[in-house]
Amino acid sequence: xxxxxxxxxxxxxxxxxxxxxxxxxxxxxxxxxxxxxxxxxxxxxxxxxxxxxxxxxxxxxxxxxxxxxxxxxxxxxxxxxxxxxxxxxxxxxxxxxxxxxxxxxxxxxxxxxxxxxxxxxxxxxxxxxxxxxxxxxxxxxxxxxxxxxxxxxxxxxxxxxxxxxxxxxxxxxxxxxxxxxxxxxxxxxxxxxxxxxxxxxxxxxxxxxxxxxxxxxxxxxxxxxxxxxxxxxxxxxxxxxxxxxxxxxxxxxxxxxxxxxxxxxxxxxxxxxxxxxxxxxxxxxxxxxxx
Length: 291
Ligand SMILES: NC(=O)c1ccc[n+]([C@@H]2O[C@H](COP(=O)([O-])OP(=O)(O)OC[C@H]3O[C@@H](n4cnc5c(N)ncnc54)[C@H](OP(=O)(O)O)[C@@H]3O)[C@@H](O)[C@H]2O)c1
What we know:
This protein is an alpha/beta fold. The chain has a single domain (10-275), classed as NADP-dependent oxidoreductase domain (TIM Barrel, Alpha-Beta Barrel), CATH 3.20.20. It has helices spanning 31-43, 58-68, 91-102, 126-143, 157-166, 185-193, 213-222, 226-236, 248-251, 256-260, 268-275; strands spanning 10-12, 18-20, 24-25, 48-50, 76-81, 109-112, 150-153, 173-177, 197-201, 240-241. The protein has an eight-stranded parallel β-sheet. β7 (150-153), α5 and β8 form a beta-alpha-beta unit. The chain is globular and about 55 Å long. The structure holds NADP nicotinamide-adenine-dinucleotide phosphate. The site of NADP nicotinamide-adenine-dinucleotide phosphate has 25 residues, from loops. NADP nicotinamide-adenine-dinucleotide phosphate binds at residues 25-27, 50, 113, 153-154, 175, 201-207, 210, 227, 242-247, 250, 284. The record marks 80 as: Lowers pKa of active site Tyr. Substrate binds at residue 113.
């Protein structure tokens, strides 16, 4: 099947900032592996790097950003305030620390990593209070131009609604687990209605989905790799994707022209076959019980 137009390179956030639809994830990428991966991604033309303060890989990412020679304004860097950094007086310090360790004067996107707070029971009302305090600090940083966009991660419907009720600046992004086995249609609809862009994580099912027989069959039929099929599925569903690898040969499969190109697409029957894999399976942690 041929599309007349390629998929869009970027998703326009509700404040007009352009978020590249394909990025590199860096969870569990450490030291020289992280440096190599980020360099490979930038050399392959990817312009979105996803990290977090708990990934502890800011030094090698800083090195790769510098070594790549790509101008700062051409790269979109996302980071996240961890559950240890939530609360009044902490989030700002956390973001300043992230920027210092990355060697950046500003961040493109900062997310609250998790709706829960470290060392606070999941059912404690302190979670809601402290994540609102965190949000207020992110709103200030946004207002001061220190970060170009702010958002959340792992927010369920209840967390999103609660935030929308109190936010002065609406979140621009919610990053959560989305793949054919866990499609989160209701949460994505809520985000869509509210103008919150969805960044899908664990698109490859932490590598396990790559060997799923249906994914393999679709890949064989469209003449692409299983990773390209899973990422294209997420992109055609309207999400941004941030697959992770530390291997340059795998990262080069995710070049924008390969994933977004008009020379192929997943047609109705392939989208339906992948859509039928829904069983709610989670490869990552579950924020559902956090109040
Ligand atoms: N906000 C959050 O709470 C949250 C949670 C999870 C993830 N994320 C973000 O999303 C990113 C992606 O999610 P993820 O890392 O959980 O999972 P993923 O992208 O679904 O899978 C990554 C795994 O797949 C392997 N892999 C990649 N390409 C492969 C290939 N062609 N063949 C075989 N194995 C392959 C990688 O190994 P190699 O590295 O050895 O290639 C790695 O172990 C993360 O890195 C992080 O940036 C955010």
